[in-house]
Specification:
alpha/beta, Rossmann fold, 3 domains, two-stranded antiparallel sheet, 9 helices
């Protein structure tokens, strides 16, 4: 019975995964998943899944299947009576049925990876951080009571009592003594922990409106979800900039709106400073993501950005990602300049994000390159 339940549950989970994949682009574009995020689970409304259920009627009720009635008779009484006999114009569309299911963030990342054909990330192999993990490898005669193996202890006591003819089948009572006790033994394994940091940078000048910041928020959620599955430990840092740059928390990052000019080099300088102070490349996999509408103060500052990338950032990071969000107020020039000066460098990945519908393709641009 337990095996049958497990098979049915597995089959239902496969149906759920299929429905999520069908609607993944919609979930990504409107961001509804993020509002349902818990600690480790995400609640997702799955459309058009109707869970079968029985509804029992009164005993001795009679009717089709229980007494009198002919084939073709309507269920529930005389024709035109009962449930579903309401008056009015007939509809032409099918009813919609939906339920909410809980999906782990790891499952969500796996579905995203399957749908976008994302490659597994290869660690740079420089991490000095280690995780320790205890694994039970055998049985021994001494140990703490918390590791007492009840089945093996009972077996040893039973063997002893049978051998000493103290066991009475008519009155079976097995009482272990200290010599019968058996305990689990363990071995501590250490393994390198591939840790990663994501450094998000965003232009918050007046040309970046609420819609543009919402696009960045949605995309960063999915980037976090995928990279968290690839690495055991991950950190996120947030930098906002207009003419100057500063580090902020996540809430401020997505809800700050400022005015004034834009000097992108200020963000790249702060990003390089954080890496130098906190994230040595020998121990960390480093991913800077910069989002902007493409406006910069001057060509001189753009050339300074290119110099910072070539000499400070790119030698230390796994990949540098630049996403340009289309804005009615932005010139869109910066991505052209990056492609002109760094277009042949495989460590630089650029993506143009016209609107929310383009988020999924942008994620594939960033994560599907196999350079992470």
């Amino acid at each position: 019975m337990s095996l049958k339940i497990d098979q049915d549950h597995h089959r239902f989970r496969q149906i759920v995964r299929g429905k999520i994949r069908q609607n993944l682009r919609r979930y990504i574009s409107n961001g509804e998943i993020m509002g349902r995020k818990g600690k480790d689970l995400v609640s997702i409304p799955i459309p058009q899944i109707d869970i079968p259920r029985f509804r029992f009627g009164d005993k001795q009720q009679g009717g089709v299947g229980q007494g009198e009635g002919d084939p073709g008779d309507p269920m529930g009484g005389e024709e035109g009576e009962g449930e579903g006999s309401g008056k009015g114009k007939a509809g032409k569309d099918a009813g919609q049925h939906s339920i909410e299911v809980d999906v782990t963030l790891d499952e969500l990342a796996e579905i995203l990876g399957e749908e976008l054909a994302l490659p597994d990330i290869q660690n740079r192999g420089k991490s000095r951080l280690e995780n320790t993990k205890d694994r039970y490898v055998g049985i021994r005669r001494v140990g703490p009571d918390s590791l007492l193996h009840f089945k093996r202890t009972y077996r040893e006591a039973l063997k002893r009592m049978i051998a000493s003819k103290a066991f009475e089948p008519g009155s079976p009572s097995v009482v272990p003594i200290p010599e019968d006790k058996r305990f689990r033994s363990w071995k501590t394994n250490t393994e390198p922990a591939a840790n990663a940091v994501i450094l998000y940078m965003m232009d918050v000048s007046g040309s970046m409106g609420d819609e543009q910041k919402e696009i960045v928020r949605i995309e960063s959620f999915w980037i976090d979800t995928w990279l968290s599955k690839q690495y055991k430990g991950i950190e996120s840092r947030y930098i906002i900039h207009d003419a100057t740059a500063r580090e902020v928390d996540r809430e401020t990052f997505f809800h700050t709106r400022e005015s004034g000019g834009t000097m992108i080099s200020s963000a790249y300088k702060l990003c390089a400073q954080l890496i130098d102070e906190h994230y040595p490349p020998s121990e960390w996999n480093i991913y800077p993501f910069h989002f902007s509408d493409g406006d910069n103060w001057s060509m001189d500052d753009t050339l300074q950005c290119v110099d910072l990338l070539k000499n400070k950032l790119l030698p230390q990071v796994n990949m540098f990602a630049y996403g340009q969000v289309e804005s009615p107020y932005g010139s869109g020039q910066f991505i052209k300049d990056l492609r002109e000066h760094l277009g042949k460098d495989d460590r630089v990945v650029t993506s143009e994000i016209r609107d929310k519908d383009a988020i999924m393709n942008s994620i594939k641009d960033f994560l599907g390159k196999g350079k992470l």
